[in-house]
């Protein structure tokens, strides 16, 4: 075989393999085009109307210093779960409220009142409108062991002009917080009480009841 013949034979082999490679490439189906997966949608959890939320007032509220329109806050003291066991409002969430009315005592045998309403709750950094009533209030003064509304006194028994508040009713504006006088505080004491201030100390527990469902989202 001559050198020229060898070169032609080698060239034929190269062309043959190149053609086979093109055929195989044409037979292979292209792979799927990569696509970005959509981000998972935020989960939503709902509390139904009637659900209860326990919270503690963060700063003292007083009818002497409080004014209508003043804001107050209370921190949620226990996880609030829905019917499926999901935590909707975790411990530490902040409830937001407003003093809507301050009424002085009408006479020396009565006490003034504070009317409060809650407006929202901050959950995981997001604030949600909250339609709830304040259904009960527990004030605790550890130094005197008080677990009910009572007249505050000094060591000599003199009235200092402050009464721990309790829920005494509701109106169209909100929940009315008042004090106890008369039989609960003692007639002799209540006769001496004038210009009494209602005081809700920091840490006083509020029990809220939802009037409307509350839905929160969790990313």
Low-pLDDT stretches: 141-159, 181-194
Distance between the termini: 79 Å
The CATH topology of the largest domain turns out to be: Lipocalin
Tally of individual domains:
2
Helix content: 10-25%
Give a quick account of the main beta sheet: strands, pairing sense, barrel closure: 9 strands, antiparallel
Question: Secondary-structure element order, as H and E?
Answer: HEEEEEEEEEEEEEEHEEE
CATH architecture type of the largest domain: Beta Barrel
Quote the average pLDDT.
75
Measured by DSSP, the beta-strand proportion falls in 35-45%
What count of helical segments does DSSP give? 2
Counting helices, strands and paired strands, the structural category is mainly beta
TL;DR of this structure?
By secondary structure, this protein is mainly beta. The protein is built from 2 helices and 17 strands. Strands 2, 4, 7, 8, 9, 10, 13, 14 and 16 form a 9-stranded antiparallel β-sheet that branches.
Detailed description of the structure:
This protein is mostly beta strands and 219 residues long. It folds into two domains: 1-30; 51-212, Lipocalin. The protein is built from two helices and 17 strands. The protein has helices at 3-27, 187-190; strands at residues 43-47, 52-57, 61-62, 71-76, 80-81, 87-89, 94-103, 113-123, 126-129, 132-138, 151-153, 159-164, 166-170, 175-178, 197-200, 205-210, 214-218. The strands form four sheets. Strands 2, 4, 7, 8, 9, 10, 13, 14 and 16 form a nine-stranded antiparallel sheet that branches. The chain has a four-stranded mixed sheet with strand order 3-15-12-11, with no helix packed on it. Strands 1-17 form a two-stranded antiparallel ribbon. It is elongated, with a radius of gyration of 36 Å. Residues 141-159 and 181-194 have low confidence and may be disordered.
